[in-house]
Amino acid sequence: MTTANILEQPLREINWMPPQRVRQFERFGITTLDDLLTHFPKRYEDRRTFDHFPHTESEQLVCVCGTVLGVSVKRIRGGRTMVEVTIEEEQATALSPRLICRWFNVYHVQKMIAAGHKLIVFGKPKERAGKLYIDHPEFEIVEGEELSIHVNRITPIYRLTEGITQRIFRAAVFRVLEGLDLATLQDRLPRDLDPTPFGVALRQIHFPDSEPEREAARRHLVLGEFFAMQLFVGAKRAETVSRPGHNHCGSGALMERLHTSLPFPLTGAQTRAIAEIRADLAATRPMNRLLHGDVGSGKTLVALSAMLLCVESGAQAALMAPTQILAEQHYLNFKRLLAPLGLNIALRTGSKRTDSATPLFDHGAWLDSVIDKPGARRPSLSTEPQIIIGTHALLYEGAGLNNLGLAVIDEQHKFGVLQRARLIEQSSAPDVLVMTATPIPRTLTMTVYGDLDVSTLDEMPADRGKIVTAVRDTSKLPDVTAFIRKELEAGRQAYIVYPLIDESDKLEAKATAQEFEKWQKLLAPMRCELLHGRVDPVEKDALMEKFRAGHAHALIATSVIEVGIDVPNATIMLIENAERFGLAQLHQLRGRIGRGTHKSYCILISDATDAPALEKLNTLAETSDGFKIAEADLRLRGPGDILGTAQSGLPPLKLGNLLADQAWMRAARAAAVKLFKADPQLALPEHRPYRDVITSQRKLMLSQIS
Ligand code: ADP
Ligand code: MG
User: Fold this and answer.
1) How far does the centroid of ligand 2 lie from the alpha carbon of residue 496, in Å?
2) Which of 92, 115, 407, 552 is the most buried (most CB within 10 A)?
3) The pTM is what?
4) Measuring CA to CA, which residue among 190, 294, 287 is closest to residue 687?
5) Residue partners of 420: CB distance under 8 A and separation at least 6
6) pLDDT digits (tens, 9 = 90+) for 626-642
7) 594 Cβ below 6 A of ligand 1
8) 399 CB neighbour count, 10 Å cutoff
């Protein structure tokens, strides 16, 4: 086995590891040396000196080492058992405090611990009737042998599963590291990015000689992870850039006619984005562009302009939306705008619900339908629709998409990036424009969307009315209601949104009915309509149309209206139990108002008092800047949610933190970009190790999908 892939060696080939242990590790998802060594410690205990036994309770976690005086098992209320283990500090005097460790209904403990054992425990001490307890501490029995591994050092503590103890795991890592010639392990980072050798970093992350050395090791390994991710993203990009595509750009005459027919001028940002897209469409490589812009920034118009350019070149353009309501809205909107141009527009949504057993997004069908098959009969654009709007149903139908030049995916975060990756991976793919209204911080853009070109609409249309946001508790509901009524009487419209408490049919129906009755009474004689996930599509359609046309004054709804709905006369957004929604979701909801020239009001009703909820609501009240909100969201939820694999199509991070380690991501990105600049395919012999990194990243990603 060469040094390059020595870490890919399966554990079962290691002769000193008993087969039963190997099976245990395998059940835990660890099958190779690499799996074992990249299962990084979750924390460390400095066992060079232990804490003194506590004298009082505290909020501080303590790590102490003592001798077991006795173990007792007691039956307590409800047929439960409690194990009590009393320990005492070494060289204890009569005055030394004792500590009682307790476990409730945990049976293995009493079999493991006996009087006379030396025990390390970690937990929070609390005081009851003059005695100090730690309930369910993490613990470890210190045995005579192998002291150099488990104590007298900064000791790693791992996230483990039942059956594997800290000692077993730690000893396995220790022996594997001992058995490797660490100096010969292939570096996975350019030296100028970080000078620590990979082997040293691996050893120091598990068994650090000092705090600074652990820090240096972490830096190296996080950079390694980020660099691998950026190489992967770079490779994806290099593939698409090198692929042949077609020129899908017409003269622009149709687009010009659309623009002159609009009652408003384009924003500077829209003009810029259209120019960027136009250049991409004209190029003979497939476009892969993200159109990124806050809610209400006018992405649809940019997309439509691109679609017209494409249609003029003789190809079809399709737009895929995540919900039926949205697809229908786009359809009506496009039909209205394009009627004078005499274009043929079609709507494709599933008339019947997709069976839950069938995948929502069928890559195969979509790809079959979008791949430009050589020799396939090109439909005549005079009879076939030139512009097709649809939901996922677009992907099933297949028909009518065999001359597709441009695919636009609206609110792409609703679909997941994996699908996009599959789409882009195909040869001779159409030009692809994805749009999202979820602003994401830059560190994430260059990761999640690192393989895309990005156009940003960073400017709102000028005629926008102001949005006032207020947080109120339920006691203010009467005042709020009076205010809403006044607005409705003045001709405006309102959304009233409440969270789904339970997804089950019965409860939803009940909650919905109650909400509706309540508001109908409160707002009578103004007309209310009810919209939720289970309203039948035809009815939903009629209902939205009614609201859009101003025949209904208030729309009582679940968050189904979250995405994309555009009714400029609606100026009130009241959200009940606002704390139950996520920050990004609330921002999206608020984006439904402030779309016309009237002043708009977003009222967040909540009785929540906990700090995260308050921070969330106050963030919304303070800013309407989508990017600031995205940062706050990232802080509150952690990047995991945003960089979920299914969503991002990226391999998971084991050590790095996208928020805390942002600067390193930037450094890793710069290093990867530099490499690809020098050699777009990374084909040079000295780039061999990086190709291996990309291959293993790809494997990792694929293992995540399957
Ligand atoms: P989003 O970016 O959230 O998808 P939309 O494309 O739905 O936003 O646009 C929101 C509203 O703004 C629509 O009613 C649209 O007609 C209008 N709009 C788009 N561009 C402009 C502009 N340049 N000036 C004024 N209004 C615009
Ligand atoms: Mg939109």
Assistant:
1) 20
2) 407
3) 0.71
4) 190
5) 409, 412, 432, 434, 649
6) 878 887 887 777 655 55
7) no
8) 10
